Amino acid sequence: MIWYIVKLKMQSASGTLWQADTIFGHLCWAVRYLDGEKALTEFLEWYREGMPPLLVSNGFPGDLLPRPLLPPPPAPTSGSLADQFKNFQFEKKRRATTYLRPDDFGAALRGEEPVLPDKDQNMVPGRRTTLKNQISRLTGTTGEEGRLFTFEEHFWNSVTIYLKVEPGFVDETKAAFEYLRDLGYGKRKSVGYGQIKSMTLGPFGGFGNPPGANGFVSLSNFVPASNDPIAGSWRPTVKYGKLSEGYAAEENVFKKPCLMLEAGSTFYDSPCREFYGRMVDGLSDNRPEVIQYGFALPLPIKLPAKA
After folding, report:
1. Which span out of 10-19, 256-265, 283-292 was modeled with the highest average pLDDT?
2. Contact, 265 vs 285, CB < 8 A?
3. Which of 16, 60, 135, 200 has its CA 20 to 30 A from that of 212?
4. Is-contact 196 11, C-beta < 8 A?
5. pLDDT at 140
6. Bridge partners of residue 242, in order along the sequence
7. Angle 187-191-193 (CA atoms, 0-180°, nearest 5)?
8. Average pLDDT for residues 275-279, to the nearest whole number?
9. Cα 161 from Cα 181, distance rounded (Å)
10. Pairing between β-strand 148-155 and β-strand 126-133 as defined by DSSP bridges
11. What is the pLDDT of residue 21?
């Protein structure tokens, strides 16, 4: 598979985080609308058979990358109280760091301690929660009092997505991302959220294979397969997905909750495989054909020796 990189310049805030399964869902609808139902069925069949032609990372703000999750260092059993407090503060700072700059991410891949950002260096993209009024579909008005709900907006100036693509699927991938660029991303894109100003998609040199690599770090949220390694460090998240596009008018648009592991999760495995994870089905009762993207886009990493 060949590495590619997608860079998006945003024109508006997004109502949905840039997670790999949501991005993949947009691409599937692009294939459906551009090439037809049969093309989408054939595309998804490759994933069901464990031969994905396209692997997608989460979207990341600017050029930042997720901090690899590592096992906590042994607690110091000796030394002064000041030294122990210093170690505690460093571990607290490390846990609070979500993203790393490219050079620091590369250091982490090599098993080195990355430089963590100071508090005054804002590494977390803008986000705010606003209040919205529910609109009645019957009257077209806000209706009764107290029909407010919270809505989270994400202000990212640019988004970077990493891909691995089979050589025979490059043109289809470009067409699908161009479709996403033109229609927008995520919830409430019909009223101006998730609008994209420009997009570039081109070859990428990859992240290399660090000497002594003994595991992998995932660039995407994923669902482990039964034969995936289990020794590692990870952070779980529960995805409450919804049907979209052509299925958005269904009586029940809510999918069942799906437990996933977040980007940055690390596992011991050598050599690093092309991919980990799997597709997840059975999340929609009224649309059994719906499946959830759960593949990891892995990078080789040198992890601390197992205890």
Report:
1. 256-265
2. no
3. 60
4. yes
5. 64
6. 254
7. 50
8. 96
9. 13
10. antiparallel
11. 95
Residue with tokens 């039964």: 226
Q: What pLDDT score does 146 carry?
A: 58
Domain chopping of the chain, boundaries: 2-70+84-116+127-301
Contact 129, 123 (CB under 8 A): no
CA distance 296 to 57: 8
Among the residue ranges 40-44, 105-109, 248-252, 293-297, the one predicted with the least confidence is 248-252
Q: What is the pLDDT of residue 120?
A: 43
Calculate the average pLDDT of the chain.
87
Contact 193, 266 (CB under 8 A): no
